[in-house]
Amino acid sequence: MRPKVIVNVAMSADGKIALSDRTEVKISGEEDFERVHGLRDKVDAILVGIGTVLADDPKLTVKERFVEDPKQPLKVVLDSRARTPEDAQLLEDGDHLIATTQDVKKEGWIKCGSGNKVDIGMLLNELDKEGVKTLLVEGGGEVLGSFFEEGYVDEFNVFVGSLIIGGKDAPTPVDGKGAQGFDDLIDLKLVDCEHLDDGVLLKYKVKYG
């Protein structure tokens, strides 16, 4: 068994999530922020990659102005090279777990696989043992690419904001090596569409095989 995996992202109308230098751009409005925090409150854990931690320093908490008496989920970071800063905001409050590899000598960190990449399958098994039944993955692009490529995504939620970022080097929601041929394409089934703020929320189920 493994947790159900929900991917949630926000992107511009041209499919970008930040400027070319990876500077964060505000894409969502208050309605989508409220939705995201409500979603965080319902899951058991939130996962991001170390790139997101270094670029945005997120807290990964549920804000009380959006959810009354929130349940704070476990915060999980993929960090194969031990780059998580000791003063990272996500370490300040609530439970957290940093996943790395056997090559990293850090006490208290969970070791999943060897080499320079965390074994996601092993991590999901460990999270299941910890009682995590639903995992929300929020970024970044390389992390989402790995989850999709390895077939671990069950639900994909994307808020499309009404702005254009442009630029061939601007990051997209799903990076990694991508499809190398038609057989690598991942099919989605659109299950819901909702107007929020000045954008639209698209909800998909992921179909593998």
Verbal overview:
With 209 residues, this protein is α/β, with parallel strands linked by helices. The chain contains four helices and nine strands; from the N terminus they run βαβαβββαβαβββ. The chain has one domain (4-207): Dihydrofolate Reductase, subunit A, CATH 3.40.430.10. A hairpin with a 2-residue loop joins strand 8 and strand 9. It has a nine-stranded mixed beta sheet with strand order 5-4-3-2-6-1-7-9-8, sandwiched between helices. The two termini are 19 Å apart.
TL;DR?
The chain is an alpha/beta fold. Helices cover 19% and strands 27% of the residues.
List unreliable stretches of 5+ residues. none
Mean pLDDT comes to 94
What is the fourth-level CATH superfamily?
A: Dihydrofolate Reductase, subunit A
CATH architectural type: 3-Layer(aba) Sandwich
Q: What structural class results from the helix and strand content?
A: alpha/beta
> How many distinct beta strands?
9
Number of domains: 1
User: Rg to the nearest angstrom?
Assistant: 17 Å
Strands across the major sheet, in which order?
A: 5-4-3-2-6-1-7-9-8
| Measured distance between first and last alpha carbons | 19 Å
Number of helical elements = 4
SSE ordering: EHEHEEEHEHEEE
**Beta-strand residue fraction:** 25-35%
Overall 3D form: globular
Biggest beta sheet attributes: 9 strands, mixed
CATH class identity: Alpha Beta
The helix fraction, in percent, is 10-25%
